[in-house]
Amino acid sequence: MSEIPDESPLLELPPPRSASGPQSLEMALSRRRSRREFQPNPLQPEQIGQLAWACQGLSEPGGLRTAPSAGGLHPLRLHVATWEGLFEYLPDFHALRVRSRKDLRGGLSRACPGQEWVGRAPAICALSADPTRVFRRYGTGRGTRYLHLEAGHAAQNLLLQAAALDLWATPLGAFEDSRVSCILDLPEGHLPLYLIPVGTPMRRPGQP
Ligand SMILES: Cc1cc2nc3c(=O)[nH]c(=O)nc-3n(C[C@H](O)[C@H](O)[C@H](O)COP(=O)(O)O)c2cc1C
Fold first, then answer.
1. Residue 11 counted as domain residue
2. Is residue 161 in contact with ligand 1, taking CB distance under 6 Å?
3. Is 193 a member of any domain?
4. CATH classification of the domain holding 55
5. Which of 4, 66, 117, 201 yields a CA-CA distance of 20 to 30 A from 73?
6. 3-state SS, residue 46
7. Is 173 in the pocket of ligand 1 (CB under 6 A)?
8. CA-CA-CA-CA dihedral for 47, 49, 55, 61, to nearest 10
9. In testing the pocket of ligand 1, which one of 35, 172, 180 has its CB within 8 Å of the most ligand atoms?
């Protein structure tokens, strides 16, 4: 059971920038790199909102999103863990639902054996999936493949958006599934797929 009920208040995020930003896609592609040292300062709501939108936000009325989804079933869920707590991104509202007011980054880090750097990230994004409708339509074999493909699309969006915001982010797959599921308080059957620690670069933006 979640410590915070589903009726918990929504934290509205600043509207995402959906037109051009300061960096081109080509620059973001060139600059994206897996980096594991971050400044300790927290991310701003604008940054978290922009990352969440790039990953799973709505890009047109009617519910279609920035990342493609097999059959438009949209099984992915995005959580963000910061020093302020654990939050679930709600694409339809471009808002965060509070899931916990505890700092769970240490627990997430310990669920990634030998990767203590994870706990030093100001924000840890977590992609998980509710497989129910995907398995019903595509079966468990192809359905599992589709869930992993979708997580890759969504994660790459987030990684490129991070690069475009002069943030560092690293995709991370080596974690203990059951511990991550427990920390995120995922419903029975949901699958944790990817963790993406994000933060401000240790070095000056623009330096490799
Ligand atoms: C599916 C997948 C899982 C990964 N898991 C981890 C991980 O557990 N820990 C980590 O530090 N990096 C992880 N990475 C990042 C890779 O180490 C990184 O992408 C690789 O070294 C290439 O560097 P680049 O991302 O800067 O191009 C993962 C990358 C992918 C695609």
1. no
2. no
3. yes
4. 3.40.109.10
5. 4
6. helix
7. yes
8. -140
9. 172
The set of long-range contacts for 30-36, using a CB threshold of 8 Å and a minimum separation of 24, is 31/163, 32/159, 32/160, 32/162, 32/163, 33/163, 33/168, 33/208, 34/169, 34/170, 34/171, 35/168, 35/169, 35/170, 35/201, 35/202, 36/117, 36/170, 36/197
Q: What is the DSSP letter of 71?
A: G
Q: Distance between CA 75 and CA 164 in Å, rounded?
A: 26
Domain count, the chain: 1
Cβ count within 10 A of residue 11: 17
Q: What is the pLDDT along the chain (208 residues), one digit of tens a residue?
A: 345 556 777 899 999 998 878 899 999 999 999 999 999 999 999 999 999 999 999 999 888 999 999 999 999 999 999 999 999 999 999 999 999 999 999 999 999 999 999 999 999 999 999 999 999 999 999 999 999 999 999 999 999 999 999 999 999 999 999 999 999 999 999 999 999 999 999 865 555 5
Instruction: State if residue 193 touches ligand 1 by the CB under 6 angstroms criterion.
Output: no
User: What's the CA-to-centroid distance between 196 and ligand 1, angstroms?
Assistant: 10
**Residue 16 CB neighbours (<10 A):** 18
Does the pTM surpass 0.85? The reply is yes
Determine the distance from the C-alpha atom of residue 122 to the mean position of all C-alpha atoms in its chain, rounded to a whole number.
13
Domain that holds residue 129: 28-199
